[in-house]
Amino acid sequence: MSLAPLFNPKKRKPDPKPAKVNLRIVIGIGLIVWGIIFLYVAIVEMWIKQVLPVYPLLITCFGLVIGVLLMLWEFIYRDKYYGHSSRKHRKR
User: Fold this and answer.
1) Range of the domain at 60
2) What percentage of the chain carries pLDDT values higher than 70?
3) Mean pLDDT of all residues belonging to the chain
4) Is residue 8 part of a domain?
5) Residue 74 falls within a domain, yes or no?
6) What is the per-residue pLDDT across 30-73, written as a single tens digit (0 to 9) for each?
7) Cα–Cα distance for residue pair 29/5, rounded to 1 Å
8) Is the dihedral of CA 82, 85, 88, 92 positive or negative?
9) By the 8 A CB rule, do 64 and 38 touch?
10) Fewest CB atoms less than 10 Å from the CB: which of 43, 54, 57, 58?
């Protein structure tokens, strides 16, 4: 292993291409997990244990809200991070 790339940037290998990932699947799985946790906290903690868990409910609600916002972001900026147009735009 040579230390030359650390001192001379011209001797570095080119960066690998970024992996193409379908963010809808990743964000969707996250939303499902947050939804299951929310249902658990709401059903088990509130109805069965008769305790009002304010912070766990807030945390799970924020997780769901952030997931929905990320899904909206992904829908709007999908063309930008994929590098090509996957939706057909109307020509004016």
Assistant:
1) 21-82
2) 86
3) 83
4) no
5) yes
6) 999 999 999 999 888 878 878 788 898 999 999 999 999 999 99
7) 39
8) positive
9) yes
10) 54
